[in-house]
Amino acid sequence: MTGTVGVPERRVVLHVGTMKSGTTSIQSLLFSQQSVLADRGVLALGNRWFAQVKGVRELIVHPDAPGRPWQKLVDQAREWDGTSVISMEFLGPFIPRRIEAAVASFGDLPVHVVLTMRDLNRTIPSLWQEAIQNGRSWSWTDYRSGTRDARPWQAAPPAEVTEPGRTFWRQQDAYRIVRRWAAAVGGERVSLVTLPPPGAPRHTLIERFGHAVGFAADDLVVTEPKNAALGAASAQMLQRVNARLAELGLADSDAPNVRKSLLAKQVLSARRAQEQGIGLEVHPWVVETADQMVERLKASGVHLVGEWTDLAPVAARGVDPEDTPGSELVAAAKDGFDGLRELLEGQHRTATLPQWPGPSDPKGAIEALAALVRAGASREDAA
User: Fold this and answer.
1) Looking at domain 11-132+168-226+283-311, which CATH architecture does it have?
2) Which of 31, 48, 151, 188 has a C-alpha 20 to 30 A away from that of 80?
């Protein structure tokens, strides 16, 4: 990382992901320090991050004529004299048509793109547990094999790839993301910020992002967001709950406030300290693919903020979630049941909430928690 940070120029910076590359920390910085950054000429668009989420979702649905949520962000950027920032991971996998629409909406205001990236191996378990929180019932084994089979640049790719594999690489093929955005804004306007490896100072990513955008971050006091990741036992238990909910006819998108915002993010994430993480050793195909990715990114001419060595695969410390003993699955389900029921009662949704039946086997515990989620979702739908 070279050069100095000067006065931010009038432009828009789109931070487009990738997912699980420190984006939550960056978004926390942008809005917890919004007024401080504005004094430095850098404005996080919208009154809160969710305004950016709504705007990007509108752009996804109506790229040719995005509605008011996106237009409000565009109007605010046009009125700002310095650098405006949108940070939203959904932008990364955009197809060219949506990219062109996003860039064109800002008119003659220059658009720059920042892509954050984490090493591939640690990203795999991180994205799997996030997919589980989002309601997917993909097994850990299927997710790993799907990621391997769908990887780009294979000499002999398989005839068919699974949905987990397609989803992973749509979100994590940084070279494709860089190439598509560079085609719209120009390669000189695309920067790649690498997430530092384990053990690096916690402020490093924020300083790198600030350098890419054009503001000094070394003196900013940034509150780290709450770690909402799941441990191995909770992730495996939730995967089985999702599978049961699917059997009951509850679609993946039903009642996200109950299943994700309440159960996963608030209740199960609180167990993280007492569980082991999701482990994954570095396999040869991961090293090969990471090397190929770096080679292509280097050749693309993307501006690097960080070190290429940060993208060398690192083993994820932990255990195979599918080896979780039954007693630990029951304990995770019981904690999930008690914590979720308490939250639902606090929302005065008690009329149809079941009681814990006290099962000692994983199947019964999973069934009980699935029934509670379903009851909470039914109450939410009726509200």
Assistant:
1) 3-Layer(aba) Sandwich (3.40)
2) 188
